[in-house]
Each structure stands twice: as C-alpha cells, then as structure tokens.
Amino acid sequence: MTETLSVVMERHIPHPPEKIWRALTQPHLIAEWLMETDFAASVGHRFDFRAEWGSVNCEVLEVEPHRSLSYTWGDSRLKSIVTWTLTPVGAGTTLRMEQTGFKPDQPRYFQGAQAGWPRFLDNLDRVLDNLD
C-alpha cells in the first residue's frame, strides 16, 4: 500500500455546531467561503466544487448532522477524502478538517491544499460571523 499524506486543520470557532453545519452543507453558504457547488448532505450524492481554475468531483460518504461530514475530493489524478468533525466545546466548537489521500508524487496537490485550506477557513470564519 502506498503511503499517503494528509492535511489537517483544527480551529476553535466561537459558534455552535448547528451554525457551522449550515455553512458546511448549504450550497449558497458553501459558495461564499469555498466554491460554487451543487452539494447536498445525502450519502451517495455526487457533486462538484467549481472555481475559475477548474473543478473537483466529489461524492458524499458520511453525514452525521452537526457532528461529521465526509466526501471524496478529486479529479483524474487525485483521489482524496475530506472529513469535517465538529466537537462542541464550551460556548463554541472545535472544527477539524482532514484531507487524506495525497500521494508522495503529488506535491502540487498537497501544497495546494496546505495553502488553500487556511484561506478557506478564514473565509468560513467571516461567513459565520455574518450569519444569523
């Protein structure tokens, strides 16, 4: 089995899991912090994320409302899985994002994820701050 690399981001967010869940699963909100999408929180749903540079193909693998969400993320060369985990902590939530499946011979994908996810999560913070 080929060893793979992962990108893991963890943040404490001063909002309840239910509010973060909305931003992770409602297409119009996802578009504000990540990319345009036809996402639906339904296991087996196939969707994509679209940006000016292209798109990634995805399929929902796991949905546990307000707790965890997992989907494939890839193209013809990349086969990865993104998993979101929401853990209530005090008045907020610890949000963990893990993207697994980067092969050692795919440094551009891995470096792109390392650079991209912090920006996406900063955008997510702004969306949540403005969400009622």
Automatic annotation (TrEMBL):
Superkingdom, natural source: Bacteria
Segments forming domain Activator of Hsp90 ATPase homologue 1/2-like C-terminal: 15-128
InterPro entries given in the database record: ASHA1/2-like_C (IPR013538), START-like_dom_sf (IPR023393)
Membership in a protein family: Belongs to the AHA1 family.
Annotated protein name in UniProt: Activator of HSP90 ATPase
CDD domains found in the cross-reference section: SRPBCC_CalC_Aha1-like (cd07814)
